[in-house]
Amino acid sequence: MRNIVPAVAAAALAIISSPAAAHAGTGLAGGFASGFMHPLSGWDHLLAMVSVGLWGAFLGRPLIYLLPVTFPLMMVVGAIAGMFALPMPPVEIGIALSVLVLGGCVAAAFRAPVWLAVSVVATFALFHGYAHGRELPSAADPIGYSTGFVLATGALHVVGIAIGLAADHRRGAVAVRLAGGAIAVLGVAFLVQAAGA
């Protein structure tokens, strides 16, 4: 875990120099494989998903299980809302806030009660799902694409949980909190970018 801070710093530089959103384009080619790779290509989604896992690992049972289940389920609800173009607050701002807030919760080691943690994660999942739901009708294989996307999202949660559990000692926990702080700072950058778009 000693190398996590330099790794996060390197990732931050790469993120700042590349587009923030995985959902910046229009139209989606392919099916399952394309859907699986999509969350891995956008830093905002990737960082939010890993943060959900990190926060769940920190909060322990039952949230270590509830948060990674809540997010994909509510993301599907958001995707359906996006497919039907239902009214929603500015989506890119909501996604940027998810990176900022979830990273901040990890950095602050915020021990939210179950209802609050689930509500925060569910709300942000709606924004992430909505953004991708707007693109989904143009996919060549919407079912395959959606399945791949949800599985990749779950995998990113598991990565966050694994990192959080591996850091279950003092120095490791500090490194994870520093990583959460770096994620929150990137959330601020995403927010500025989204507000200016």
Provide a quick synopsis of the model.
This protein is mostly helical.
Structure explained in plain terms:
The protein has 197 residues and is mainly α. It has one domain (28-196). Helix content is 75%, strand content 0%. It contains eight helices and no strands. It has helices at residues 4-16, 32-37, 43-59, 63-83, 91-107, 114-135, 142-166, 170-196. The longest helix is centred in the last third of the chain and has 27 residues, at 170-196. It is globular, with a radius of gyration of 16 Å. 46% of the residues are buried.
Report the principal-axis shape. globular
Count of discrete alpha- or pi-helical segments spanning 4 or more residues:
8
Measured between the Cα atoms of the first and last residue, the distance is 36 Å
Main beta sheet strand tally, sense and closure: none
Enumerate the spans where pLDDT stays under 50 for 5 or more consecutive residues. Answer: 1-27
Number of strand elements: 0
- What is the residue-mean pLDDT, rounded to a whole number? 84
